[in-house]
Each structure stands twice: as C-alpha cells, then as structure tokens.
Write a structure and sequence with these properties.
By secondary structure, this protein is of the alpha+beta class. The chain contains five helices and 13 strands. A hairpin with a 5-residue loop joins strand 2 and strand 3. The longest helix is centred in the N-terminal third of the chain and has 21 residues.
Length: 194
C-alpha cells in the first residue's frame, strides 16, 4: 500500500483534457487523484482506517448540520472541483451555498464542478507532511467564492483557520471549532476528531 502521494508529470503533448482527466479518475476510483494548475497529477492512496473514521466524523457532523440548515449542500472527500487556475482538487469535506451550486448546469454538477466551495476542510493524516496541505488550503483561499477553510492537524492537535485576505489563525487543542458566520450554527466537536 502507498503511504504518500505519487506525482506524475505529463509531457505537454500528453496533457489530458478536462473530460479525459475526469474519465481517468472514474476508471481509477480506488485512488484519490488531483491535478495541479501545471497539469501535474498526484495519486494519493486510500486513507488508513483511523483517518477514514475521523474524516467520516467530520463529514457526518457537516452533513447533519447542512441538512438541518438547508442553505447549502456538503460534499465528501471523493468530490472533485475544478478551480479557476485549472487545478482539480478534492477537499476532505466541503460545503457550498445552494445559490452558487444552482448556477451550474446539470452537466457541470455531474463532473468536477468548475467552482470552489464556500468552505473546505483538510484533515492531516499521520503520514501527511503539513506544508503541502497548507499550500493546498492557501490555493483554495485565492478562489472566488471561498469564505473559510480548516486544516486539522490531528498529530499536533491544532486547527489552522483560513479566511480570504487574512493571516492564518492557529487554534491549539480546541474543544470545538465554529463555522463562524459562514456556516451559522455549525460547531465541530473536536473530541470526535482527536
């Protein structure tokens, strides 16, 4: 089993179109595949059971809140989004206002939606390096529509909070983390993550 991502660089004449990349990901469903703005493909192994459980807890809490709130929809870690830079990314959990989601065509909603969620979460597994995850969250923060991002570092019990145009904030071993005014009323109980 792979323990860290594999990075593939494609020659310019072998770059996949958006449609080809989507099909490539569909044929390789057991792997998490992302593509950066330069066309470099990263293939990430499935998470370990413990990380999968913690990620599932985060998504479950977000799903319950989103269902009750009704102003948006949430997405799990297997959902890809095409960013304005051309990168295709899959946050561990995310949420988007319905009004933004409804601007997309049915076909756009079926594939890697060409839009960045309002809220994204990345969960650091024990084998992840922190800086690439910080870089990924900072990439989201440059996207139109993004309002809030969390990078949860279980290893050191820290939560990094990102807001567009603002410096990173770090919470040390918080009991809860609030969705602030972006996800009004959403509070993640960190005991289910730690």
């Amino acid at each position: 089993m792979l323990s860290s991502p594999i990075f593939l660089r494609m020659p310019p004449d072998l770059q996949m179109t958006d449609e080809q990349f989507f099909e490539f990901c569909q044929v390789n469903r057991d792997l998490r595949i992302e593509r950066d703005k330069f066309g470099e493909i990263s293939i990430m192994p499935p998470t370990g059971s413990e990380t999968g459980n913690r990620s599932g807890n985060i998504f479950g809490e977000l799903y319950i809140w989103a269902n009750q709130d009704g102003t948006g929809i949430c997405f799990d870690s297997s959902t890809g989004f095409k960013l304005s830079t051309g990168a295709e990314r899959s946050p561990d959990a995310s949420w988007m206002k319905l009004e933004r989601w409804n601007t997309l065509t049915g076909e756009q909603q079926q594939k890697f939606a060409p839009i960045c969620p309002d809220f994204v979460v990345e969960l650091r597994s024990s084998s992840d390096n922190l800086q690439p995850l910080k870089d990924k969250i900072e990439e989201y923060m440059k996207e139109p529509g993004i309002q809030l991002g969390w990078l949860i570092d279980r290893k050191h019990r820290k939560v990094y909070i990102y807001r567009p145009g603002m410096p990173e904030e770090c919470l040390d071993n918080p009991a809860t983390v609030s969705g602030e005014s972006v996800l009004t009323g959403f509070v993640l109980n960190m005991s289910k993550v730690w």
